[in-house]
Amino acid sequence: MELLDHGLMAVGRKYLWHHRRSTPDELRQRAVRLYRDSDLKPVIKRLAEQLNVRPEALRNWIGQAEADAGERSDRPTTDMLEESRRLLKENAGVAPGERNPEGRERVFRLGARPDPATVLTFINEQSGRFAVALLLRVLQIGESTYYA
Fold it and tell me: In a 10 Å sphere around its CB, with 0-12 CB exposed, 13-18 middle and 19+ buried, how is residue 16 labelled?
C-alpha cells in the first residue's frame, strides 16, 4: 500500500481515498448525484468501486444528502451538525457546572432547597413546555414525591 498525492492510496491496482477529509467535495457531490439521478438505483458497492471510494463512505454521503433534503429524519442535517460543532467550540472553555445566566430565568437560588410546594408549583407551570419526568430528573426529585 502506497500513499500518493491528494490522499490517494494505491492498493494493488486500485486507488482508494485515504481519509474522508481528503476526498474532494466535487467527488462526493458527483457520487451522490450519480446515485440519486439513476432510475434504477445502482448497488452502492459497485458504484463505490467504480468511483474508487469505500462503500461505507458512499453510503454515508447518500444518507447525509437525503437528510439534508428532508427525506430522512434518523440523522441530523449538515446545518444541525455545523451548529453543534459551533456550540461545542463555544462552550469548550466553560467548566462543568458553570453556566451563563444572562437572559435566563432564575428559578431557585444556588445552594438553597426550596420548599416542596414551590417546586411542585414550578413543575405544574412548566409541564406544558417540558415532560414532567424530565423536569423531575433535572430537579433531582423522585417521582414518588411528585405523584404522592
Answer: middle
Q: For 81-127, what is each residue's pLDDT tens digit?
A: 999 888 888 877 766 656 555 555 555 555 667 777 888 888 899 88
Show the cell assigned to 121: 408549583
Position 69, amino acid:
A
Q: Write down how long the chain is.
A: 148
Dist CA 50 CA 46 (whole Å): 6
CATH class of the domain at 2-90: mainly alpha
Q: Where are the domains of the chain?
A: 2-90, 116-147
Cell of 130: 417540558
In this prediction, residue 16 carries a pLDDT of 55
pLDDT at 103: 53
CA distances (Å), origin 139, targets 37, 69, 116? 51, 38, 11
